């Protein structure tokens, strides 16, 4: 395990995947706070600072609610990198069109080694 003091807010509404990702990050030496939904995440963002926000929220029927949720989370942590875990290239294309949204993305299903490597690279920037 690496020694790091980086803190990550992991937002994921799938309990099993959230536990798995949190475990992978912790084993890599990161301090991880998990949130099951946007509301919980926003509370954590009010109460602390994070080095990275890793965001995976469902898009309810692709009705735009996902974009507004992602935008709100990003606005609450200006200057903090956001790694979006996307279900499809289509979601990523939609988000690229949102002007005030700054993030990086990975397409699911995630390769664990690639996920950790991307997190390390983002935090090293």
Helix and strand layout, with pairings?
Elements: E1 7-12, H1 15-27, E2 31-35, H2 38-47, E3 52-56, H3 65-76, E4 82-86, H4 89-96, E5 104-107, H5 112-124
Parallel strand pairs: 1-2, 1-3, 3-4, 4-5
Helix pairs in contact: 2-3
Detailed description of the structure:
With 125 residues, the protein is α/β, with parallel strands linked by helices. It has one domain: Response regulator (Rossmann fold, 3-Layer(aba) Sandwich). Helix content is 45%, strand content 20%. It has 5 helices and 5 strands, in the order βαβαβαβαβα. Strands 2-1-3-4-5 form a 5-stranded parallel β-sheet, sandwiched between helices. Helix 4 links the parallel strand 4 and strand 5. Helix 2 packs parallel to helix 3. The mean pLDDT is 82.
Brief sketch in words of this structure:
With 125 residues, this protein is α/β, with parallel strands linked by helices. It contains 5 helices and 5 strands, in the order βαβαβαβαβα.
């Amino acid at each position: 395990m690496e020694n790091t003091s980086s803190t990550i807010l992991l937002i994921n509404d799938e309990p099993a995947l959230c536990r798995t990702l949190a475990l992978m990050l912790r084993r890599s030496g990161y301090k991880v706070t998990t949130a099951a939904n946007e509301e919980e995440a926003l509370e954590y963002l009010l109460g602390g600072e994070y080095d990275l926000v890793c965001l995976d929220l469902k898009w309810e029927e692709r009705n735009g609610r996902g974009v507004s949720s992602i935008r709100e989370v990003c606005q609450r942590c200006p200057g903090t990198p956001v790694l979006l875990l996307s279900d499809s290239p289509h979601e990523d294309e939609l988000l690229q069109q949102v002007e005030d949204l700054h993030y990086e993305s990975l397409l699911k299903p995630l390769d664990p080694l690639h996920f950790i490597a991307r997190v390390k690279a983002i935090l090293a920037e």
